[in-house]
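Notes, Module 5: Reading structure tokens.

Key idea: the token line is not a picture. It is a compressed description, and you learn to read it the same way you learned to read a sequence, by spotting repeated patterns. We will look at two proteins. The first is printed below with its tokens.
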Amino acid sequence: MRRLPAVLLILASAGVEAAELRLNVEGRVQERPASRSVSRIVPDEKPAAPDRTANEALRDVPGVFFQERAPFGLGIGPGAAGTLSIRGSASNQRSLLLLDGRPNAAGLFGHPLNDSCGAEWVESLEVVRGPDSVRYGSGALAGSVNLIPKRLSAPGRKAVVSAAGGSYGQRDFVAEGGWRGDAWDGYVTAANRHTDGHRPKSTADSYHANLLLGRSLPGGWDLFAMARHADDRVWDPGTLAEVSARAAQGKPVDKWSRAMRTGADLTARKDFGAWSTTLKAFMDYGKNVIQNRSSTTYLWDSLDRTVGGVASVGYSKDGVSCEVGGDVKSTGGDGRDAATNRRFPGTRRSEGGAFALAKAEVLRSLTASAGVRVHGHDSYDAEFVPQAGLEFKLPFRMSLRGAVAKGFRSPTIGELFHAAGAASDLSPERAWNYEAGVAQAWGSQASWDVVAYIMEGKNLIRSEGTGAAARYRNSGRFTHRGLEGSVRLAVLPNTEIAGTATVMDPHNETKGNPYAHGSLSVTRRWRRFLLSARAQGIHKLYGADYRATRLPDCVLAGLRAEVEPGAGLRLFAEGRNLLDKEYQFAEGYPMPGPNATAGMEMRF
């Protein structure tokens, strides 16, 4: 109750922009609940060429940041690369990555592996900034990213092949194709990405394949299955201090990690009038190996398995929409820590919940939304998760929004049992998010959006103590405050200007959470030629929590050119860090200097 005045103040001073829209795999428009800060990105529709990875597709979303240590890496192991941060959630997997609603994470420690997800099979990405636990449960404490797969919506065929190469031995090969007939449809992609690395012993290889197969059944049912396999191996060159220490011993740094993941899901969906129903079953299997032969501090080998399902029923008519459903998930696995010669036998934990979401036009210019989840876990008591929001539509296509939402994250199996310092009595991390925003849009010509938020959490799971005495504990509270803004202008012929800005006070969670960052891009098209310039700025980024080890501020500049000579052919070239700035996103890992990529794409 002590937060009620703050909530009422936010809701009274601001409401919500028009409800965000997304396309499902059939191309049918669906509405998100009012009052949420939602961004939808379609990689193939960007003014410049499609992004290669999910990380690249998200780089211009306000409130989102990635802690990188190489052009592409792997988000597993100590000091992992590619860590997704939404509103200051850089550590402990507090943001959820989903593949068409299926959670995608390494089962034992919850690493989302977002940086290893190629964008070649992705139709769109839906990013929710702020807790999304009512809809998706544990892990969406700070937000969620849902990747919607490509699927042809009309009869026909499609095929695309692309190849690129560049600095540091970079090689990219992608092939994709799809078809749709009267009853059957399918989409398949395959990709290989390689780099020799910009530092010694920083090679990375990535192999991905994705298959979607659909069938229209009698009675109006749409049945489709998706399967995905990824094999990523990355060598870690070590921090500059580690390289120096090993060189003094006459030895090189020798560290690498490999993640092999296979996942599949089966979905049945039917629309009948104002009603719809969706049933989904999924599984995910992974093998992770982390080797550090430079020392005996971390040698890990594990298998993890996740199975689960989701069921929901929806209704939408005359300005009223609602969805009721439930989900269940069981995760387990085996681990071996060779450094301590400890084996962790098969351990499994199950969780799931029931949820309800509703939205209604209360007045002509006022829309209200609410949601609730009751979530159970076999390691702690039931969790009650609410959210609510209002949307006010104003003249001149302006809108105001205000929302309050709760999010939570269950302790992972690693934190409960498998890690050094594991503690079986951990409680879930919890957070409340309060936000208010204003937005305006003039058709396809221009738009802008600004949102302010406060996120307060407790029961953070931290490793306390040193050496053998270190243990995971629920400790401390956090308060993150911030402003997020974006603008897009297309007022000049064939020219688009887009910018984003994020200002945040992450309290003590300063690792991977800059106080300010933003981007600005200008894209100009002349018939078959396109030129795009982009700049990214980062201010006050730290290499550790509690404002320790401040990293250099930087402004990074890039330029991309494309030409389409005809017959479905596109040629492109791109230069990055053209100002030759020395910068780091992770302490001790310098990023590349000026580098370039060039390639071609053929559409059939």
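Here is the second protein, with the sequence above and the tokens below, as before.
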Amino acid sequence: MKTITKQLFILALLASGFTAQAITNSAIAVSGTNIVLSWPSYGYESYLIQYRQTLDPSDSWSALTNAYPANSTNQTTFTIFGVVPQQGGSGGSYSVGSGSPPRPSFASSSMTAMNSEPLAVPVDGSGGGAPVAIYPPGFDFSNFNIFDPVSGESVSGVGYTVPLLQQSASLTLDDAQPLDSGSGDPPQTGFYRVFHIPNWLANFSGYTFDGPTFIPVDYAAPDAPVDYVDSTTVLINGQPTDDAVFMPYVINGATNWGVGIYFDRFPNGTNTIQLLTTVRESDTLNDQTPYMVFSNAPVAITIGNLIMFTNWDDLIWNNTNYTFRAQTVANVDWEIDIYDINDNFVNYQTGHSDDGNIAWAWNLTDYWGNSRNNPDSDPDFYPYITITGNLVQNADNEPNAGSSSAGSWMPPVAAPYPSSGAWLFAYMDNFYDDGTTNYAGADSYYLNGIQTMEGGPEEWSYTAYDYPIEFGRSYSQTNRNDSWEQLTYNYLGSSEGQIRNFYYFGHGAANLIGGDISLLDSSNNIIGSKNLPGSKAFMTTQIVHDNITFNKNSGAILYRFVFLDGCNTASGGWPAAWGVPKQAEPESYYTSSANKNHSRPSAFVGWDVEIGGSKDWGTVPNFWNFRSYWMSDWAGTFQQDLADSLFDGNDFSGWVSPSQFNSHNKVYGYTQLEFLQWNNGGDWP
């Protein structure tokens, strides 16, 4: 991995030594006709505040305010004005905001159970019952009795725990409580919840961003702990950018998490920056895994690079030459030196720029005249630029007297494709054996199906790797973690970049695949997987984006074909993580300006529901017959396109009805991709 001079460091020094804590001891109070929410704070946090009138599934949470700043260093308050009916009268108009209301008196609350879920009732009688499902994981119920509305019985809350958010209606709550006006009028009931949202842990005022820079982010448990952040997207001027990385950085011995942003890929001037964070709300992985997406408020920033790369190409996409481009101040001499993946010098060029625009069309030969256009031996190049001239300018953008030099690593340049794209077939090895005996004999269909699919590329002499992922209770956590690390970095993200076609079978969710052990229902059927404490036995959309597809440190690796054969893999951000548009695209798209990455036609296949494991998804033999047939059709002599091969594979296998298959099997990108199309280095464009 190459060292970039600034290496995403600068703003790390601006981070404060905050330690984020879970919101506890939050309270709700009535002050006149107003409701006052309050909770502990440190003074730097931002919050999302939501409301819903009932917990009925037909009701939903709505935002009262977003990116609400803490207004105290020990107790933040938020006031909802005019929602409590006056004594003997009706309530006032509904409005929200902050203010300085009279000191509140805490009102008792009461509520009729809206469903059959257990209720938490304060032992001291200070309030009515609220469903236990709305409390955060790990909440201490010692001061509550747990009331079962079905049996009418109560038990002590001592030792009672809430599983980690089992349903989307029970996302992380911070002591939300039902409300009662306390008057003789019918109560105005409802629920409020407060989320501590990820936000920048740095003050941008007066700061100018230059080059790769690390910005620490306030990822706060339990609402947005780092281990549950499956995706972080940076918006510059309201547009998502691929020039950002979710990463840790150690400052004074403490690990800080945040984003490294390559500001030298953006024009100089005033811009806005914003953060979107997708947080998984459960350790259970299946099509029911709940997610929350948090956004902070846009903030104005100043970008001021000495050298920038605003029209950079990450790929040597035309196979014959590549143009290095940069922008800097006017009237400079420049030199670009190229190094290969083994740190060997390749070639260099010098020149002069009157207007600050720098361009060198390199013919892919080295200093000694040898061709360097073999993608197998030269998958990446690393250029370094040096400029010399009057680099310090005055307020009128005129050069000052004197001459100086500056240099920096330019972004890496990757070969678009190896001489032939290899295949990887990865699958959870104990999928049918972990924790259940309901699938006796299933392994024979399972392994035969995997091996039959591997026969597709082998028939055409393409390299196909077989990778069983260590899964289940028979392995240690370390072994499971290591197995996924090898898959991610030694195979999919290998610096050699040979693998460009990937099939995965196993558990999944909208933004994550993997898990440690099988999750079983009451009948001992497999319904998903579960991440155990300390687990790294998974892969997220963020990991793929940062370390494989849009790798800004060692070079991009774009995949031609990806099939994530697991639950719900087509519902979230997986297609985009692999660089595939989340829609069908014609071949003409890939030669148009809309294809900003210069990728060759590529396709993603996934599902938008939980597949298998129930009577609605056929038998295990037919399940695996489909997987054998679709590959046989796609790689067969007649060269059917991808979408037709998938459909016919299901039809021939008798797995599920055509309508069910078409409803839930999703193919994105170039859906007409043929098996042999564009799988060799010189095939495209």
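Summary for the second protein:
- The CA atoms of residues 487 and 669 lie 24 Å apart.
- Residues 27-197 form one domain.
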